[in-house]
Amino acid sequence: MIHARQLTKFYADLRRGQFVALDQVSFNALPGQIYGLLGPNGAGKTTALRILSTMLRPSSGSASVNGCDVVTQPALVRRQIGFVSANTAVYDRMTAREMVEYFGRLHGMHEEHLQARMEELFTRLQMNDIRDLLGSKMSTGMKQKVSIARAIIHDPPVVIFDEATVGLDVLVARALLNTVAELREHGKCIIFSTHIMREAEKLCDRIAIIHRGSILAEGGLDELLDRHQQRDLEELFFQLISLHDETEPVNR
Amino acid sequence: MRRPAGGGWNMNWQNVKLIFLREVRDQLRDRRTLFMIFVLPLLMYPLLGMSILQVSQFLREQPTKILMVNLPQLADLPPLLIDDHFNPQWLSDPTQQHLFDLLLTNENDTPATIPDQAATEEKIRRAIQNDEYQAAVVFPADFAQQLQRFRIQLRQRSGSAAQTREAEPAVPNPFIYCNTANEKSHLAYTRLSNLLRAWADAVAKQNLKDSQLPELAARPFEFQRQDVSEPQQRTAAMWSKILPFVLLLWALTGAFYPAVDLCAGEKERGTLETLLCSPAQRSEIVTGKLFTVMLFSMMTSILNLLSMGLTGALVIAHLPAADEAARLGVPPLVSQLWLVLALVPVSALFGALCIALAAFARSTREGQYYLMPLVLVTLPLVILPMGPGMELNLGNSLIPLTGLVLLLRSLLEGSYLAALPYIPIVVGVTLLCCLMAVRWAIEQFNKESVLFRESERLDVSLWLRHLVRDRSDTPTAAEALACGILILMISFFMGFAISAPANFGDYFKIIVVTQLVVVLTPAALMTVMFTRSPKQTLLLRWPVWWTLSAAVLLAVAFEPIILVLRVAVEQLYPLSPAAVAVQESMQKALGEAPNLGWVILLLGLVPAICEELAFRGFILSGFRHLGHKWRAIVLSSLFFAITHWMFQQSVIACLLGAVIAFIAVQTGSIVPGMLFHFTHNSLLLISAEFSEQPRFQKFFIWLSEKQYIYSWWIFGMGVIVTCLLLLKFGSLSYRKTEEEALQEAIDRQVAEVPG
């Protein structure tokens, strides 16, 4: 469903020179699976996911979503993904219903189908009481629900969550994780990026540990722990990062 | 269902409509927008009008102090003063008598007691500059005496049949001292000069009467004005001077603030990223936002004009000093319709410009800073039509905004027939500017560096080091732009240092230095510093052999077309006398060349090398990274054109530059372009040399003493051969840049709508 091959992205930074945000990252994500990108801040997770959602273009390498190339077929790719991140806000002066409806129409949904889908989503995500609430009046949790509804209104086969639990309290974060798990049960291909070990452990079927633009290790949780002889993900994470920092220069 | 989903203009208009409706609804839910667009105009002008009316009743013009020196006492002439005030007979409005506060010198002073003239002058100057009084009228000491002698002589001459040989006495002129740097003093001077002229006329009439000559001898007839305009036409003419300017200003203001909110504001609020990952293409997003900005620009303009017009007309009519001319009334309905119609392209143009600038800003505060440069660029174009002698003609109608203002003025004045031929031109130019502005706005939305721009601390040395360290094989578009601007700036300042050549030797040095220092050096230095592959940058590769001869042949075939275009351009924009003088001095210097070969070397070979390396080498290579071959060709040609400075030459140079750039792109080599350039320049010189010779007359047609073109059969052949050769060059498969290849791939993609 999602195939990334040797994805590289570099920026020209005045101080650091050519700064490599992603360095030949490759991974595959399949339907009915949650693929986790686990890494600290600045690891390159957002860059990778922005490339997949066509907001950025890779400097080299390629990626495809459901057979469509992210560089040469961006419009097709955007029709097939839903993207939720800490940076995707809701409109202050739109109600939840208006916002979800707006994005549904942008996806070309027919009116009847759109209304039916909205009913279903609002019920599933327990949003009926905030249907007519303006974005400016919503709490963080409410906004996140609206973002999710907006992202999956068109029932895309691929859903991308980029640090979607940032700023959420425990209850809201848990509800979001349950929603993500439900989407997997519906056969969606999900990419979930986070820097919180617990989330990756609980949710992800496969995990890629990413640090300074490179994937340090990739596989199922048990597989990774076995391979690196570690008891838990946190220990594994620190082991890999320490090893990487010792062998690789800080700035590329 | 398949529908095209590429970049460019293949848009889903349903998405555009969705985005437009959402943005409009969003803006209308914003209290600040509602206040700025609806409430402020409805309140501001009436409040302003009320204030003006309230204040006007307290406005009283202060009298101006006038010093009168040596006032002449002429018993048998109409008096200048009555009871120490100006005779109301000499005032255009007798009620203004109280506006003059006269200070009189001692009437009994004899010439012996008056201080010498220089001292008096100095005293008066100081007094006026110190504002002791605003003006002074100084009659020379012997004024009355000389005037009386003149009148006696006139009477004697008229009564006697024999001509006297006695010389006419010179009546010394009185002086009016004033300070034109001071508004009050200047106004005092204007009133005084009118008053004294009226008195002088009366004195002249009295002289004629005393000489038993009719008063009409001085002015046997007078021209009388017969105004053929209707009152509403006069009203429309008054409004035509104000409304276009105000309309454009409000359209710009009305566009700017919504654009900043829709672009920079969305970035700040985080909703732009949400929109960017929707299926809407960048062009659809920009177009939807553009229509929103246009709507608010038009609404702002219309509401402000309505409110201002109504309030203004009412207030002026009720001002105490209002005369017939000031009673403007409401603009006629037809004028209002023209204004609304003109508002559409104006709002589109300003909307697109504002969106492009606002997209570049990281925040609303930064976006507001960009308003000033936009105003500085557009304001001169809007004010230019107000200059003396500016009228709607073919030349002026080609200037963006200026042509529109002039057209609007003509339409408001009711000169429809006169304006009709220029409507397509003005509309075409405005639409072209709109399209370019929209294109630029879409470009901004396609740039990652603009959408996800982070704040940086500017460090010039780091930045320069980065440019050199991180350079690629060919220059970036920004580097190409910088090179173009650098060439223009050096050329501009060099122009002040260079004087007209006295001989061929001077001329030779000027051209060589200009070409080497101004044109080639910046491009060469930037090539070395900012690119890794000078060969690729400057297209230093040998082309396919046939393209060399084709380039020469194309230059030959193009020559007749160029000459016709040159004549057309000079008809449209005649050379000024100064430009003609410069041309003549250059011709004279060229005439001193040892032979034609030297001239061809100087004006053919040197520019062919230097200008091609700069414009079709460095600059074109950089602009090709914009992703569109034709955009690169047009931009490089524009820079090439502007360096020619004389407008008439620039127009021709732009076309030539485009053809040469096209050849360079298609062949991937600078050499054919150099050959074309050299051949073209040489042919111009050769044809100028031989066109006057009788044995070549049959090849030329002389349109005037200095203008000639080739015979029409040569022109026809030239057109055919040019078209064929251009098609041949067009058929070459050229090496695309990465950006061009990517853009082509994106334009080709087709969106499958999920079933």
Write up what this structure looks like.
The complex is a heterodimer of chains A (252) and B (755). By secondary structure, chain A is of the alpha/beta class. Helix content of chain A is 38%, strand content 27%. Chain A contains nine helices and ten strands. Chain A has helices spanning 45-52, 74-79, 96-106, 111-124, 140-152, 170-185, 197-203, 221-227, 233-247; strands spanning 2-13, 17-29, 33-38, 60-65, 68-69, 81-85, 158-162, 189-194, 206-211, 214-219. In chain A, strands 6-7-8-3-9-10 form a six-stranded mixed sheet, with helices on both faces. Chain B has three domains: 2-55 and 230-451, no CATH class; 64-217, no CATH class; 460-494 and 547-733, no CATH class. Chain B contains 28 helices and ten strands. Chain B has helices at 13-28, 31-56, 117-129, 143-159, 183-210, 231-269, 271-276, 282-318, 333-360, 364-369, 371-383, 394-397, 402-413, 416-419, 423-446, 448-451, 460-469, 477-497, 504-530, 534-537, 545-572, 577-591, 596-623, 629-642, 647-667, 671-690, 712-730, 738-748; strands at residues 2-4, 64-69, 81-82, 85-86, 100-104, 135-138, 175-178, 700-702, 708-710, 750-752. In chain B, the strands form four sheets. Chain B has a four-stranded mixed sheet with strand order 5-2-6-7, sandwiched between helices. The model of chain B is unreliable at 1-7 and 107-114 (pLDDT under 50). Chain A binds chain B through residues 12-15, 17-18, 53-57, 71-76, 78-81, 83, 85, 87-94, 102-103, 105-108, 147, 150, 154, and chain B through 5-6, 14-15, 18-19, 22, 25-26, 29-30, 269-271, 273-274, 276-281, 448, 451-452, 456, 459, 462-463, 466, 469-470, 742, 745-746, 749, 751-754.
